[in-house]
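Q: what sequence does this backbone want?
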């Protein structure tokens, strides 16, 4: 085109793109008919051809060769793309704003149920259960807590029939605190209240108040009570209230701010301050009442403290009956009384777990019904953990474990105040247990000195048997030593059962002494000395008993090596009946609990019952 003088002008844009403009005569040529039709929006002259310029210097040289007379106008123009420049400036800002909004939405997610916006972060997170909300738990589902159930049902009746109480001058209580160990049914009782009350029921956890922003906890408390007053009469249930109700003034950093204390102060004001509403009742649950603030516990805020303990024999039977109902196919030999006698110290949650595990075990074995053996396996599974079928133990270790457990059995059998033995096992279960013995304890609340000493001797029976038989000791008695050390220190420092220390108690459940001790270094040394004397005396007594009953020790150990598990009835046939005839309220169930000498599968294993000073199951 240059050689034919058809090019009028070349415009090089940003030294990258060349725009070619043709002459008027060239546009009339049929060869350029298509490009001649190009028009701009505003009828401005537009280039007919464009091409990319690789090297500007090479482009100049080539153009000079083609157009030595320089008839073609060549212009170099700098042209800016305002749109792309604007995008380049705005895109990082848009991305940063989008990330910020995403984080804010996630942080405020679920706050107050108002779409999760950051502006709702101070709203209460309580779930509302009213007449339209279906709560399938009723008081009929709560068993073994008869006294606590009566108290809570009375609170529900306060709201349903307030005139019945106010006519006599009584005031509706403002709150009730459910106190008890984990798994005893505190939250279940609150669910039953929600299902039966027929009034609005707000439910939330103590941790739902606290957030990373200062002031959010107090704001949520205010919003919760504002909603509750709008729907009064109603009930507010705060689960795990110790998350915000911990005693103030402890573990404070100098000059710092404790958001939890601000939340607690607002809760105290709302519960019993100016402008409080009598139509709102507070239910709360905790398993740590010892750490709660005294202002929270006083009458006027929590007028009632409802204690929920682990169920006794009758309570466990009632709980078993409740949890056996969903199991549609039960064998005829399943007896709730027998199960309740076999599970001393179990809480409601553990009983529910036993029933569920029994059904799973029966299904795993392709049974058509859940029988008593499945429940016994489930109890073993819950107590001792999973059976270690692939755990290989050397014959030497197995012999040590057998004599260790036989020592426990002999000591418990011939000591008057030891708990009756249920069974002894050397089947490995759980993380580290190579074997253990289970006892059926009396459900008593007071223990005499001789009873505690007998229990210490029974616990030391395993270590003593190892020394008597092998003249050596092993690490298998670690848990035994932990338990008797705890018991011995309890006798000396808490229960006043030592002549030299005297009738003093250094029990410190709230850690009021902090890192210090309320006694001198001399007293501390004296306590350690008396504890060692007490344990040494119990150990020597146990060794003397095992030496005297060496024949019985050998018989039980050999039977354990042969069968791995033996029951109480087996011991009676092997070494005779216990020389003590103390009747307990378990005695009527003993015939059902004991099993005859039969071939027992190796899965069966049980645990020791907790000591009066500690709640840990024994395992070696």
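A:
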């Amino acid at each position: 085109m240059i050689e034919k003088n058809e090019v009028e002008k070349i415009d090089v844009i940003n030294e990258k793109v060349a725009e070619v403009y043709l002459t008027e005569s060239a546009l009339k040529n049929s060869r350029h008919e298509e490009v001649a039709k190009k028009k701009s929006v505003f009828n401005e002259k537009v280039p007919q051809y464009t091409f990319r310029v690789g090297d500007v210097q090479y482009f100049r040289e080539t153009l000079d060769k083609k157009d030595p007379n320089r008839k073609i106008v060549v212009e170099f123009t700098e042209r800016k793309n305002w749109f792309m420049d604007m995008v380049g400036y705005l895109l990082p800002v848009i991305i940063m704003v989008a990330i910020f909004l995403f984080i804010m939405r996630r942080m405020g997610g679920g706050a107050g149920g108002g779409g999760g916006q950051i502006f709702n972060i101070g709203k209460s997170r309580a779930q509302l259960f009213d007449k339209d909300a279906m709560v399938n738990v009723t008081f009929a589902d709560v068993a073994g807590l008869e006294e606590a159930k009566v108290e809570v049902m009375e609170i529900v009746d306060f709201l349903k029939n307030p005139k019945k109480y106010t006519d006599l001058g009584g005031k509706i209580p403002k709150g009730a605190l459910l106190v008890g160990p984990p798994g005893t049914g505190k939250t279940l009782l609150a669910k039953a209240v929600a299902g039966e009350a027929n009034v609005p029921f707000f439910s939330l956890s103590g941790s739902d108040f606290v957030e990373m922003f200062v002031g959010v906890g107090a704001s949520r408390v205010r919003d919760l009570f504002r909603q509750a007053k709008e729907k009064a009469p109603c009930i507010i249930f705060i689960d795990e209230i110790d998350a915000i109700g911990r005693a103030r003034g402890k573990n404070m950093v100098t000059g710092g701010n404790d958001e939890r204390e601000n939340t607690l102060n607002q809760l105290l004001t709302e519960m019993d301050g100016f402008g409080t509403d009598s139509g709102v009742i507070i239910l709360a649950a905790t398993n740590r009442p010892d750490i709660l603030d005294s202002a929270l516990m006083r009458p006027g805020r929590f007028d009632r403290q409802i204690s929920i303990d682990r169920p006794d024999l009758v309570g466990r039977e009632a709980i078993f009956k409740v949890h056996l109902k969903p199991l549609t196919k039960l064998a005829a030999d399943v007896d709730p009384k027998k199960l309740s006698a076999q599970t001393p110290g179990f809480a409601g949650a553990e009983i529910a777990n036993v029933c569920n595990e029994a059904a799973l075990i029966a299904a795993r074995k392709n049974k058509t019904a859940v029988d008593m053996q499945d429940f016994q396996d489930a109890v073993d599974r819950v107590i001792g953990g999973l059976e270690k079928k692939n755990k290989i133990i050397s014959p030497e270790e197995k012999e040590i474990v057998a004599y260790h457990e036989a020592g426990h059995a002999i000591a418990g059998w011939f000591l008057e105040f030891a708990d009756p033995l249920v069974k002894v096992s050397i089947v490995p279960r759980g993380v580290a247990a190579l074997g253990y013995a289970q006892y059926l304890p009396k459900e008593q609340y007071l223990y005499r000195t001789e009873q505690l000493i007998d229990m210490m001797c029974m616990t030391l029976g395993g270590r003593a048997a190892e020394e008597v038989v092998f003249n050596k000791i092993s690490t298998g008695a670690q848990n035994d030593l932990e338990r008797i050390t705890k018991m011995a220190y309890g006798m000396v420092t808490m229960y006043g059962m030592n002549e030299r220390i005297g009738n003093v108690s250094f029990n410190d459940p709230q850690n009021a002494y902090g890192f210090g001790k309320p006694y001198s270094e001399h007293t501390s040394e004296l306590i350690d000395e008396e504890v060692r004397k007490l344990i040494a005396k119990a150990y020597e007594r146990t060794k003397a008993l095992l030496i005297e009953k060496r024949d019985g020790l050998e018989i039980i150990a050999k039977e354990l090596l042969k069968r791995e598990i033996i029951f109480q009835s087996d011991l009676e046939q092997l070494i005779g009946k216990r020389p003590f005839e103390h009747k307990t309220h378990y005695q009527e169930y003993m015939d059902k609990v004991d099993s005859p000498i039969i071939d027992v599968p190796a899965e069966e294993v049980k645990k020791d019952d907790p000591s009066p000073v500690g709640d840990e199951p024994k395992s070696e």
